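Internal ticket - ligand job 292, magnesium ion:
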Amino acid sequence: MRIATFQHQGRRQVGLVAADGSSVTPLAFTAEEAARGALAVVDLASVGRALPPAAGPALPLAEVRLEAPIPRPRRNVWCVGRNYHAHAKELRETVFKNSNADPQAWPIVFTKVPECVIAPGAPVRLPGAAVSTQIDYEAELAVVIGRGGRNIGRAEAMSHVWGYTIVNDVTARDVQMRHQQWDLGKSFDTFCPMGPWIVTADELDGTDTRVRCWVNGELRQDARTPDLIFDLPTLIETCSRGITLLPGDVIATGTPAGVGMGLNPPVWLRHGDTVRIEIDGIGVLENPVIDA
Ligand code: MG
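stdout (structure tokens):
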């Protein structure tokens, strides 16, 4: 299934996207349930309950406005830093070239606040030069947890994955670099485009798919998820050590090589840019960049 959250005739609905991506069939959720977006579906699925019936005929996708599948996550979005071999290499050769830091034994994990999630097509707002002048994109496969759990072992980890979506882990590099923890530079308003929908795990093997990112039509990132340093089961095992993962938790799994910071010289996002991310088996997430 592909589950989308969207606005139609002034209200939020949740629906099933057709296989060809041309239409979406709204599900008969109450307005209160639909307000939670795809979380309404995840919560049913996580306890083995069936979806509600269709609320009406399929709507052409062109006649609705997609929102982030989970417009407001229950809590922070989990994120993993420096998690593709080729990306770690580009950082060693550029920003960290005077550092002798060994590849880390454990994943780098940080979070983005729920309020920074925005819809496909919604603008990423540059915060102004007084706040940051180094805004960068990061195309990422994001895992959506279905059944929650604590101390989830690698062997069972994939059975906790309900689906996948795309996240752009937009980052203020100067702010990221000056703090030991990355949350501030990763959580600016509008810095978490998410979408276009969630593809359920039965339809996509997230452990082997292709992640690409274009800026203004120029291909910048192109990798497959087997290049992950810490694979999806390891990330779920790590995030759930001593912490109960909840249905609907989102884990952004890290970005491939080709970020703006890794270019020589670095290239930062500017007003008028467009960032387009495509992940095979999911779809396209595209957002313009504008001055706030
Ligand atoms: Mg990232």
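Auto-summary: The two ends are 36 Å apart (CA to CA). The longest helix spans residues 85-93.
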